[in-house]
Specification:
Blueprint lengths: L4 H15 L14 E5 L2 E2 L4 E7 L1 H5 L6 E7 L11 E7 L7 E7 L10 E12 L5 E14 L1
Keywords: Signal
Length: 146
Amino acid sequence: MQLSFSTALATLAAVFAAATPAAAACAEASRFGDVIVSPTSLSPGDTFTITANFTCAAQLGVNPQYTDYYIEVPVNNNGHEPPILLARRTLDPNSPLFDQFTVQLPYSYYFNASYVVMLDTTYPVTGTDGSSYSVVGGVETPITIL
């Protein structure tokens, strides 16, 4: 039997895949959760669903205590677009890796700008003396406000 380069490469890739821990399957960008908004094109007064998945966050060592959801202008904000709080939530202990709810887009003043739904995840870490303190990390997903 002759071993070709492509066969050897495929075999090596399979060995590395089998030896890699499950957390490696999660992207670093998922460290604070993954957030999905549906629909993504909205007008004031529209209702939409926000779904957050913390499966990869937990695999990467982030176990949320609280979550805050905002509408923000992430780039070139001239100070007239402060973040709008959509919801502040505590995860259900029976389903700590998922959060889903429906919310109405507030009747606010929206500008010709790019908007995102921002998920800020508050989670505990252990300090150098063994005590716990809270830190915040966030992820965002784009939306269009018509």
